[in-house]
Amino acid sequence: MTAANLQERLCELVCQEMQLVERRGQWMVSLPFEGRDGDHLVAHLTQQGDGWRISDRANTLMRLSYENDLPKLLSGARGRLYEQVMRESGISEDDGELFIIVGADDLARGLFRLGRGMSRLEDLGLWSRGRVESTFYDDLNSVLRNVVGGIV
């Protein structure tokens, strides 16, 4: 198998995973990423000038709100992590809707950036106090063992 054949095959497989539906001048794309609930993440495309606006239509924060108090979740350390993920992914927010605006030639990269960002943000829901607290004590125990040896 050559690199060209493998690339062609990978493109076919990825395209099979992405479902595309047109509704009222917008495109809905089922991405090859799954949320924590097992459903595929969905992006909504709208042509904007020479490029595209790629949006989650507020689904990411809505999904997080099912199990979390959003104002509380998006404050403090988790809020800083939320902002960091948004910056790193190049995602903007408007009233809960996450979106990226890309040029026509950058559509595929934009879809993957938004999908990856949505997936990372959904994981903020895993940051419950109990989980973080238990990992803190595990980490502290490990550090103490390294500092003072096996007596801890």
In brief, what are we looking at here?
This protein has 152 residues and is an alpha+beta fold. The protein contains six helices and six strands; from the N terminus they run αββββαααββαα.
Describe the protein's topology.
Elements: H1 3-17, E1 19-23, E2 26-34, E3 40-48, E4 51-55, H2 59-67, H3 70-73, H4 76-89, E5 92-94, E6 97-103, H5 107-122, H6 129-148
Antiparallel strand pairs: 1-2, 2-3, 3-4, 4-6, 5-6
Features:
single chain, 152 residues, alpha+beta, six-stranded antiparallel sheet, 51% helix
Can you walk through the features of this model?
Helix 2 (59-67) packs parallel to helix 5 (107-122) and helix 4 (76-89) runs antiparallel to helix 5 (107-122). The protein has a 6-stranded antiparallel β-sheet with strand order 1-2-3-4-6-5. By secondary structure, it is an alpha+beta fold. The radius of gyration is 20 Å and the shape is globular. It is built from 6 helices and 6 strands, in the order H-E-E-E-E-H-H-H-E-E-H-H.
